[in-house]
Amino acid sequence: MALLVTIVPAFLCSSLCRFVISRFGRLPVARNCSSAILVGLVNLSGGELQEINGVLIDKVQDTFHQWKQTPENTGEYVHLTNELIASCESIQWQVVELEKAISVAERDPAYYGLNEVEIGKRRNWTSTARNQVVSIRRYVEAGKQKSVFGHSVNPSESIRSKQHIAQDNDDFIASESDQQMLLIKKFEHPRHGSLGFLPRKRSSRHRGKVKSFPKDDASKPCHLTAFVGYKAGMTHIVREVEKPGSKLHKKETCEAVTIIETPPLVIVGLVAYVKTPRGLRSLNSVWAQHLSEEVRRRFYKNWCKSKKKAFTKYALKYDSDAGKKEIQMQLEKMKKYASIVRVIAHTQIRKMKGLKQKKAHLMEIQINGGTIADKVDYGYKFFEKEVPVDAVFQKDEMIDIIGVTKGKGYEGVVTRWGVTRLPRKTHRGLRKVACIGAWHPARVSYTVARAGQNGYHHRTEMNKKVYKIGKAGQESHAACTEFDRTEKDITPMGGFPHYGVVKGDYLMIKGCCVGPKKRVVTLRQSLLKQTSRLALEEIKLKFIDTSSKFGHGRFQTTDEKQRFFGKLKA
C-alpha cells in the first residue's frame, strides 16, 4: 500500500464526537473502556468510517500542503510544525483508545450488533490510521530537525535520535567531542583561488601598463606621474618605528626591502588626447629631433637587417623654417583642443650593464598640474633631456608598482589554484579536481579549477612605501646611515644574485615586488591621497644589510672579511 500522508488535526476530534452522538445518541458505557464515544465509533459501519476517513484526509492534505509551502526558519513554519506534532500525538492516543473499544467489542459482538467481518474492517482502519499518523509524525520531525541542523534527516534517523534521547535522558549531543564531530562535515567551504584575476593567461606585454593615472589637479605645478625601473634584488634593513601607542614605538624592527635601479628617463615626444563619449582619442603627437639608437630599435623587429631610417625624415623638419612652423602649429593645436597631455619617455638601457637587451623601453607618462598650455610647454622643454627619479618620487612616499609576475609555465590545479589533494589511494592521480561539474549544463563552468598557465600575469601592487632614494655618485647612493658609518655600497658582497652591481640611481621600497630579477617594472604615483599614519610615517634607517646573498652572509664588506680571515685566505 502506498504511503498516504494524512494527519488528523486536533480540532476534528470534537466534530467527530458530535457526529457519533447525533448518529447513535447516548450509548451505554463500554466495559473496560475509558470513553463511550469510542465505543460508538465501533458501531459505525465500514462505509461511514471510510466517509469520516475521507473527510479527515482532505482536511489533513490541505494542512500538509500549507506546511510544505511555508518557508523554513519562519514563525508560521514553526507554529505549523508544533501544531502538526501535537495533532499526531492526539490522534495516536485516540487510535489506541479505539483499539481498546474494538477489543471490548470482540468479547461480545452480538451486544454491539457486529460480526467478525465488520470488526476486521475496523481493525484495518485503525491499523492504517496508526501507520499514517506515525509516518507523518516522522516526516514532520525530520523537517523540524532539518530546519535546526541545515540538512535533511531521514525518518529512521529521527527515531534513532529519539531512542538516543530516551536512553541518555540528556541533550541530543551529550558531549563536546560529539559537538566537534558534528562540525567536521561541512557542506560549504570558501573556494580555492580568486576569480578576480581571470583569465589567468600570459600577459600580452612585458612591461607593466599604467591603465589609470592619478587624477589631475590644476592647482599644483606640472609634474610627471610615473617612472620606469629594473628590479635588482632584495635585502633587509633595521629601522626605528615611529608609531605612538604601539608596542614597537621607539623600538627597532627588521624589514625586507627591494632595490629597483632607476636610471634617468629621456623625454623624446609629446602626445595629446581628447575626451570623447567613447573614451580618449589621440589628437596629435610631436617628436624630438634626435632619437638615440636604443629607442629607434624599439620600432624594428630586426634592427641589424633594417635600413635604420626611422625618424630620419621627421628630424629634417627641425632644419627648415617650414618644418619648425609645422611643429609649432601642432603644439598650438595641443594647447587649444587637448584634454590630456602625456610625454613619451624611454629608459637608457645602455646604462644597465647587467642586461643584454639593447632595445629601450618606451612609455607614455601623463603630465598633471597646471593648465593645458603649461603642460605642453613643460613637456616640450624636456625634449632630449634626462629626468631623474627624484623629480617624480620623494622619500617616504607611497607608490604603486605595475609589472608582470615571474612565469611558471603550465601547472596543475593544486599549484595553480591551491585545491586540496585527493586521498592517497585515488585511482589515476590525486593532484586533480574530482568533479568538474554536473552533466547539465553540458559545459565546464569558468569557476572550476583547471590546469593551465601559471605566472607571467599582469599585476598592480598598491601602496609601496619608498624607504630611500639613491643617487649615483653621491653619498646617498651608499648604504651608510647615521647609526652605521661603515663605507659600503648598496650592492651586497658578490653582487645581487642574477643581476650584478647597481651603479645608477635606485629606489628602496618596502617589501617585495612583482617579477624576477632584471624585470622592468612601472612605478606610478598613488591614485589617492594618503592620510593614514602608516603612509605618513617618517622612515629612519639605522642599518642596511650588504652581506652576500649567496648562502649565509657573515660580512658586510670585503675589508671586514679580510680582517677576520687574513689577506691570504680572504
Automatic annotation (TrEMBL):
GO terms for molecular function: RNA binding; structural constituent of ribosome. Residues 57-136 form the Syntaxin 6/10/61 N-terminal domain. One of its GO terms (biological process) is translation. Residues 1-17 form the signal peptide. Pfam families: Ribosomal_L3, STX6_10_61_N. It comes from the Eukaryota. Transmembrane segments: none annotated. Keywords: Golgi apparatus, Membrane, Protein transport, Ribonucleoprotein, Ribosomal protein, Signal, Transmembrane, Transmembrane helix, Transport. Its main location: Golgi. It is found in: Golgi apparatus, trans-Golgi network membrane. It is a single-pass type IV membrane protein. One of its GO terms (cellular component) is membrane. The keyword Signal applies. Belongs to the universal ribosomal protein uL3 family. This is Syntaxin 6/10/61 N-terminal domain-containing protein. It comes from Oryza meyeriana var. granulata.
